[in-house]
Each structure stands twice: as C-alpha cells, then as structure tokens.
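Fig. S4 source data, part A: sequence.
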Amino acid sequence: MGSVQSAAYTDIGKDVVKIGDDQAALTAKSRVNQLLRKPLTADAAVQVALLNNRGLQAAFNELGIAEAQMVAASLPPNPSIGISKLSGRFELEIERQIVGSLLALATLPARAEIARDQFGAAQLRTAEAVLRLAADTRRQYYRAAAANTQVVSIRRRKRLPMQLPSCSSGSAKAAASTSSTRPANSRLRPN
C-alpha cells in the first residue's frame, strides 16, 4: 500500500487511504465533508473521489490479498506429524514420523519469486486504478463546469432582446424566422 500511496502523492499530489476500520472510515468521511463545505474545485473533486470511492477500496483489498499470498508463498511448508500403531501377533510397534514435502521445499524460491511478481503486478494495477480515477474525476469535473457555463450563456442570451441589423423589413423578418426555427441543439454548437 505504501508504494501506491507514494505514487499517488508524487504523481497527483493527493492522499490515498485504505479504509480498514471504523476510525479510518470516520476520518475519511470527515475529510470529505470538510472538502465539500467549500466551493468544489477540480483538485477537491479528485481528493473526494479518492477518499470516497468503493471500487478503489476494493482494489486496495485485492492488493492486501496479493500481499498475503506473497507472504504465504515465501514461507516453507508446515511439516506434518503422524503417529501410527502397528500390531502383529506378539509385537507392538509404534511408528512416529515427521514429514515435510520435499517438492514444496525444492520449489520454494521459484514460488516466492512468482508471488513477488504477482504482488508487484497487483501494486501496479492498484496504482493504475488510483491514477485512472483521478483522471476520470478531473475530466468529469471540467465537463460539468463547461456544461454549466453553456447553460448560463444560453440563459443570458435568452434574456437579451434579439437585435437584428437594420435592413429592409422583409429581410429582417426572414432572418428572425430562420433563427427561431433552427433546432435548439444547433444553438449550442460553436460556429
């Protein structure tokens, strides 16, 4: 998790936290509420998304699972202990044995290396999820801001009286009828 946090901080300058208990959830929620009390900026929207996204928390959990699998793969196998009792006609034989898998011991270095590679891949996937969420949030913020600006501009245009250039009354009427019959969405496109 540390490498993902450092990548997020160095690349986008934002904090990323894994919410693993109630205290961390309360801290993240209070931080989100604090950010939402102020006017929303692109940076604040990104920080809110990083603190409040459940999909990102799921990616952090998958990273934790990959780390646990890496640790488990790097440990030698547990030996098994067995006791058996064999009895013949007049003999009683007790056999004790400690058995460990030789194959598991022989493949331990290779399994540990594979698990490290898989953990590294999980770290990269999680860092990608963080960066993708930040980029998507920033893009959506700017799209919403642009749409809001367009709405304000259209409302202002509707309030202003339509001013036509002075010309003969017939051509003015034709220009007015042409502009009023255009579809509404054609007014939104830049010329």
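Fig. S4 source data, part B ends here. The chain has seven helices and two strands.
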